[in-house]
Write a structure and sequence with these properties.
Structural class: mainly alpha
Pfam families: Ribosomal_L20
Function: Binds directly to 23S ribosomal RNA and is necessary for the in vitro assembly process of the 50S ribosomal subunit. It is not involved in the protein synthesizing functions of that subunit.
Number of strands: 0
Protein name: Large ribosomal subunit protein bL20
Radius of gyration: 26 Å
Shape: rod-shaped
Distance between the termini: 90 Å
Oligomer: single chain
Low-confidence stretches: none
Helix content: over 70%
CATH topology: c-terminal domain of poly(a) binding protein
Family: Belongs to the bacterial ribosomal protein bL20 family.
Number of domains: 1
GO molecular function, one term: structural constituent of ribosome
Number of helices: 5
Strand content: under 5%
CATH superfamily: Ribosomal protein L20, C-terminal domain
CATH architecture: Orthogonal Bundle
Order of helices and strands: HHHHH
Amino acid sequence: MARVKRGVTSHAKHKKVFKAAKGFYGRRKNTIRAAKAAVDRSMQYATRDRRAKKRTMRALWIQRLNAAVREFGLTYSRFIDGLAKAGVEVDRKVLSELAISEPTAFAAIVEKAKAALPAAA
């Protein structure tokens, strides 16, 4: 049986790892053993943080909405309660974007939510 040399395969594998490790600090970018470990860990972080990003973005939208509705004399929780009672089904991402880019439209939504709430207690 003929001898099989595996240099091409190994080189291709290493090249893929080094490409993913580009920009890493020290030996993590140019030594295959350190680079492979660093790339594996970086992929774990990437997977974890794709999920965490969704949570942090929602928290950001809520903070923006809370700041925006306080100008109208409401709190975030009362605003969301008013929206639910008024039957307005707009998500927090869109509401946040409206508060920034379309203040008049957002004001109309806030007034609708205010009207749906019971008189101030």
